[in-house]
Amino acid sequence: MKIATYNVNGINGRLNVLLKWLEEAAPDIVCLQELKAPQDKFPQKAIEDAGYNAIWHGQKQWNGVAILARNMEIEEITRTLPGDEDDLQSRYIEALIDGIVIACLYLPNGNPLPGPKFEYKLKWFARLSARAETLLSLKTPALLIGDFNVMPTELDVYKPEKWVNDALFRIEVRKAFKDLVSQGWTDAIRLLYPNEKIYTFWDYFRKAYERNAGLRIDHFLLSSQVAKKLKAGGVDRHVRGWEKTSDHAPVWIEIDKIK
Q1: Is 28 noted as a catalytic residue in this protein?
Q2: What are the site positions for Important for catalytic activity (predicted)?
Q3: Domain tally for the chain?
Q4: 0.85 exceeded by the pTM?
């Protein structure tokens, strides 16, 4: 089974890019972030014509997450991250597909700091950690997938010294990620490539993609049942070079079927 995550940075404006990649890569399950479309503007027909079922949680202008599945039913569990009834930002959706819990997330950026956006990020991270702990306790195979807006280590960012006071690399955020993983999750890409510089995001400015001045902020965290089945993974870096593309590239893993 091939599972992918892709921050599309506007699903309608980049629909042709998404559809081209879906045809080329043929993932079985896809988590999308930053739809930047209200609920009724999700391109459902185009996604279905491409062979995918979909559930989504849209939001006008910003945020938005979706889960796609090819030839499989999607049983929605929740479309909000527990812990704050007043949080209306569409950043989390969770579903059961083929006996596996898929949690698709778009963690807040947190900049600028100090300030309310950074505080929101830390609180959201704490809520995610609480939900993640609950998922592990259920003993059901589970994955936390998406744009975490975190570079966990210096290996995950070009020129790390320039990012020490950025909300994506602050020590508090990296500690939150480390504590989350320590619950019993496996960082799939880092397990497969323990010492390699692998990026998933390149800014539009200063020819970042051409210079490979990137960040690794899109992650797969696997429960132990899934980690044992991990076969391969990587980044479809070339998609970042396509015309009118997102500033993220799709990331994917392959796992053996879980009985």
Answers
A1: no
A2: 218
A3: 1
A4: yes
